[in-house]
Amino acid sequence: MLELAILGFLRDRPLHGYDLRKRVAALMGHVRPVADGTLYPAIKRMAAAGWLTRKDEPGAVAAPRRMLYLTDEGRAELERRLRDPDDLDISDENRWFTLLAFLRQLDEPKEQAAVLRRRLAFLEEPTSFFYDGDRPMAAEEFGDPFRQGLLTIAHATSQAELAWLRATIDALVALDGSA
Amino acid sequence: MLELAILGFLRDRPLHGYDLRKRVAALMGHVRPVADGTLYPAIKRMAAAGWLTRKDEPGAVAAPRRMLYLTDEGRAELERRLRDPDDLDISDENRWFTLLAFLRQLDEPKEQAAVLRRRLAFLEEPTSFFYDGDRPMAAEEFGDPFRQGLLTIAHATSQAELAWLRATIDALVALDGSA
DNA sequence: TCAATATATATCGGATCCGAGGTATACTCG
DNA sequence: CGAGTATACCTCGGATCCGATATATATTGA
């Protein structure tokens, strides 16, 4: 997921690692930024894969910066990941949020809509969080406020997402039809 | 986080690995269950740490089951993790949800409320997801429907959680006062 | 002026996780 | 009766991640 964020940010403009770190933290980390011990190895790894190149930037700032440029291979890899995301079928909000932040970078509205439809199909599957043996338990069955809270929050989240998904898919289809 | 789920489920009743796998999948995994290659090493690890004991169950079922029993050390470890969760300050919904599912296992309403208050404080911090240089960008600034969607969903989620948190903290405080 | 903080990059060990593969028995359906 | 599926446990290699640690300079505030 970190790799997708790096590819996405670099498609907008070249950045050095420290700047990238702040942007990734804002998107994925909030309080605790992504650890340096995670980010810099990831950059190195992705440079080895040929997705980005590094160039030293002799500048006015304290430490020497290494600017990161997305290569054509990196751009192709980004498009591949946006078009065919592996994990729309699991309930990992962070992954979905990161994807959502960069999905606009796909050129075709039709392909953007296709990704959203897969997510919609996933969210429309019935979900159960708790079981008594093999029998799924309904929210009303436990007075436990914490499990009630879990279901309340999960429900509100998926309702908000569903509403937005449906509206956005419609808009993308209309956009594609009129083009 | 997997370890917290295992401790929490075993506090309710002894389970064998395969049963645990289904419950963990229902809570954390939904479509894709936690991999066997993750769960069984985790069980082994936790047995080595003294948090649970394993006993072979010669039974009528196909393969021999190994029942898992939480030890006193395991119960103490669970309470420690519920009381002092490391990561209420990061935006990982899965962690928070797992914690929420077992927080009722803390005996004192006062301590339950204390955990919720820390989460409340985190959610009340202003958050920005996107930056133009160092300047945080408001939702209105980009017409981009994907970033708008990101903010819409994030906002709805945190509003639902805030409302539930405030109500539940009040209820716990009242409960503690009347006891 | 001196300490602290911010800038900036990097390595290393340890932890956890996933995917692929392996083993074996019971039940169900054609 | 045979194939497929469900039950049930496990190992191993590879990937990613975090925390600690290291280095070095510029800026800011007491």
TrEMBL record, chains A, B:
Pfam families documented for this protein: PadR (PF03551)
Location of the Transcription regulator PadR N-terminal domain: 6-79
SUPFAM superfamilies in alphabetical order: Winged helix' DNA-binding domain
Source taxon at top rank: Bacteria
Annotated PANTHER family: CONSERVED PROTEIN, PADR-FAMILY TRANSCRIPTIONAL REGULATOR
Protein name: PadR family transcriptional regulator
The organism of origin for this protein: Nonomuraea turkmeniaca
